[in-house]
Design brief:
Largest sheet: 8 strands, parallel
Order of helices and strands: HEHEHEHEHEHEHEHE
Bound molecules: pyridoxal-5'-phosphate
Structural class: alpha/beta
Number of strands: 8
Distance between the termini: 11 Å
Shape: globular
Radius of gyration: 17 Å
Strand content: 15-25%
Oligomer: single chain
Length: about 230
């Protein structure tokens, strides 16, 4: 079911809420980027998002994303946000500029190998399981430092930040400790100079909790349902 408002109206509403969250937390609106998550919708609906001037597009499965990338190509900047299996890396590298779900060294090395073959560099986020739920992907916070240190050595990966998924909770406020935990971890890693350059980015916050994530320092929010709608297919 699509939300009743037009895409333009939904964008306006989301922008207002982002601005308010920035104002509440004393942040600059320019630090917060929107990734429109189009995994629920068609190529045509994704084109509409681009027509509205949103160019960062998120997809969580290679097979669903490839027809869109084929049709829309370089008009968008593609973000891979889903769990990534090593045997799917070949479908992702060269097409997606950002990968948000690097959570193990074997995966990072596979991405590096494919990127090297193409002469490219991929921007990556290390996904961290801050909430500690068994069902969540991501490296344990205590192991993030050693993983980042290893990824830092891979020439074709540029680690730019951390990503997390909040648990499903009744009230978005309950997700705050998870978002705060990711920010604190980022600041600790930077204080310890784990990477050559400080990592600046935090990919956190979705339709239900993006305002809390922004208050806690998100620089990329990943918005599907609230912005693009759910579409008919999943
Ligand atoms: C689907 C998805 C989103 C967007 O979810 P909504 O709740 O629809 O905004 C964000 N991040 C990831 C990793 C996703 O898989």
């Amino acid at each position: 079911m699509n939300p009743p408002l037009s895409l333009q109206d939904r964008m306006k509403e989301v922008n207002n809420r982002i601005e308010a969250a920035c104002a509440r937390s004393g942040r600059n609106r320019n630090e917060v980027h929107i990734i429109a998550v189009t995994k629920y919708v068609s190529v045509e609906a994704t084109q509409e998002v681009l027509d509205q001037g949103l160019f960062h597009i998120g997809e969580n499965r290679a097979q669903n994303a490839l027809p869109k990338i084929e049709a829309l190509g370089d008009t968008a900047i593609w973000h891979y946000i889903g769990h990534l299996q090593s045997n799917k890396v070949k479908d992702v590298v060269g097409k997606f500029s950002y990968i948000h779900s690097v959570d193990r060294l074997s995966l990072a090395k596979e991405i590096n190998k494919k990127a090297e073959a193409l002469g490219e560099q991929v921007n990556v986020f290390v996904q961290v399981n801050v909430s500690g739920e068994a069902s969540k992907q991501g490296v344990e916070p205590s192991e993030a430092k050693s993983l980042l240190a290893e990824i830092n050595k891979l020439a074709h990966l540029k680690v730019i930040g951390l990503m997390t998924m909040a648990p499903i909770v009744d009230k978005p406020e309950q997700a705050r400790p998870v978002f705060r935990g990711l920010r604190v971890l980022r600041d600790e890693l930077n204080a310890e100079h784990v990477t050559d350059e400080p990592i600046t980015e935090l990919s956190m916050g979705m339709s239900d909790d993006f305002e809390i994530a922004i208050e806690e320092g998100a620089t990329w929010v990943r918005l599907g349902t609230i912005l693009v709608g759910k579409g008919e297919t999943m």
